[in-house]
Every structure is written in structure tokens, then in C-alpha cells.
Amino acid sequence: MSADKGTKANSAAEIAHNWQLEGGVGFLLRLLEARYDELYQAVTGQSDVTPRQFGVLMALYQLGPLTQSVLAERISCDRNTMSEMLKRMTARRLVSKKSNSEDRRSIQVQITAKGEEALLAVVPAAAELQNIMLAPLRKEDRAHFLKCMLAIAKASPLSPIED
């Protein structure tokens, strides 16, 4: 083993030995996601509209018809996942698709009356869920916490670290 590899191995071993799992971003994100998913089903009382589908319905409700690619970008979802999700949502008549009059190569997706009804049935519980999730934080810390989460989520993959 070269000296450089040995130094890296020692450094990695030292980092691993001192690592605090509860301080790891990935570990904490998984805990938050698990808590959110558990509470989403408990608070909304349904599993018909998943959290991601809620995002699709909310985007269409607020913004009107969108192309599939704009919708995917709006809710930060890859196109293949979006396509599969829209197939399921179309089959359940929560959304409808039509050809895009501005660009025949794309389709527009819009919320249906049934989709709007499903969304509006979940909105009060979703608002309550937001309050439940943020309840452990002081009221004055909640907006800052959400702002920090958004900054991390929207950062480019290899953004330089700033002080």
C-alpha cells in the first residue's frame, strides 16, 4: 500500500470512528422522510393521493395546464417517474392529458374535477401536517428552517462550500 493510500485509509478510519450518525444529513433526511410519510397517511386518513401526487395536483390547481416536462421540473421529479405517475393519475381520472396546441411534440396535463375534489379534500390535513412537522421548532425558527431546506434542495450538485 502506498503512503498516500495509507494516509487516506487512516483518515477515513478516523472520520468513521468519530462520525455521529444522528448528525449525518442523509440519516436525518431519511428520518424526516419516514416521519412525514407516516404522518401523511395518519393525518390525511388516505393513501389515494400520495405526497408526490399531491404536489402534481397542487401545481396544476395553482398554475393551470402544464406540459409534462414543466410539471416535472416544477415538482422536482424526473421525466420517467412523472410519466408513470401521470399514467396512474390519468387512469384514476385525477388529471387529463391533451395535445399541446403550442407544441405538437408535447402534451398538456390538467387537473380534472375529480382531481380538484381529491386535492381539496387533502389540503386541510396537509396544512395540519405542516404544523405537526414543524411543531418541535420555535415559531421564529420555522421559516428559517424551511429556507435552509430549500437552499440545500435547490443547490447545484457540486456547489462550492461558502462560509
TrEMBL record:
It holds the Pfam family MarR. Residues 22-154 form the HTH marR-type domain. PROSITE patterns: HTH_MARR_2 (PS50995). One of its GO terms (biological process) is response to stress. Signal peptide: none annotated. It comes from the Bacteria. GO terms for molecular function: DNA-binding transcription factor activity. This is HTH marR-type domain-containing protein. It comes from Bradyrhizobium macuxiense.
